[in-house]
Every structure is written in structure tokens, then in C-alpha cells.
Amino acid sequence: MSKSSKNDLLEIFAYVAIVVSAIAWLLIGLNNHIEAIKFSGKLIGGLQLVATVLTFIVVAVVAYGFTKGKSTTVKVIYWVIVIVFLVCVVFGSII
């Protein structure tokens, strides 16, 4: 994948993440303040999950670029954090 196409993909992920996150927060606000409107908790949770995962992907790819040329310790910390995040998302989604 060329650097330009990777950047385009990151930009798309970032854009979709911010749009989905804004929609989720709007629905949460409407849920909390308007009694007649009640959105499903699963809908809002799903939107938040999508926004979180897309945001994490963007941040993880950028952070990976930071680790290039750094010590092994920095790289190990990076991969541990990525794995911890993925495990938490998977188990959090199941529960």
C-alpha cells in the first residue's frame, strides 16, 4: 500500500469516526433530555463501538509510525497496548 493511499484510508477512517461519534453523542443527549425519544442502548453502544475502533485504528497506525527507529521497549509497549485494546473490545462487546 502506498503512503498516499494509506493516508487517504486514515483520513476516511478519521472522518467516519468523528461523524459516527457525533451521532452517538447526539442520540445520547436526546435520550437524556427528551422523554418521548428513546433510542435503543444497543444502537448507541454500537455507534460508540464503531467510533472507538475507527479512532483507535487511526491512532494506532500513526503511533506505529512513531515506533519506527525507536527502542525495542517502545515497540513492545506499543504492541502490548494494541493487544490489550483488542482483547478489551472483543470481551466488552461479548458481555
Structure description:
With 95 residues, the protein is mainly alpha-helical. The protein has one domain (3-94). Helix content is 85%, strand content 0%. The chain is built from 3 helices and no strands. The protein has helices spanning 3-33, 41-67, 72-94. Helix 2 packs antiparallel against helix 3. The model has no long low-confidence stretch (mean pLDDT 85).
Helix content: over 70%
Number of strands: 0
Helix and strand string, N-terminal first? HHH
Strand content: under 5%
Number of helices: 3
- Envelope shape: elongated
What's the pLDDT, averaged over the residues?
85
Q: Over the alpha carbons, how many angstroms does the gyration radius reach?
A: 17 Å
Which spans of ≥5 residues are poorly predicted at pLDDT below 50?
A: none
* Count of spatially separate domains: 1
The biggest beta sheet reads: none
- SS-derived structural category: mainly alpha
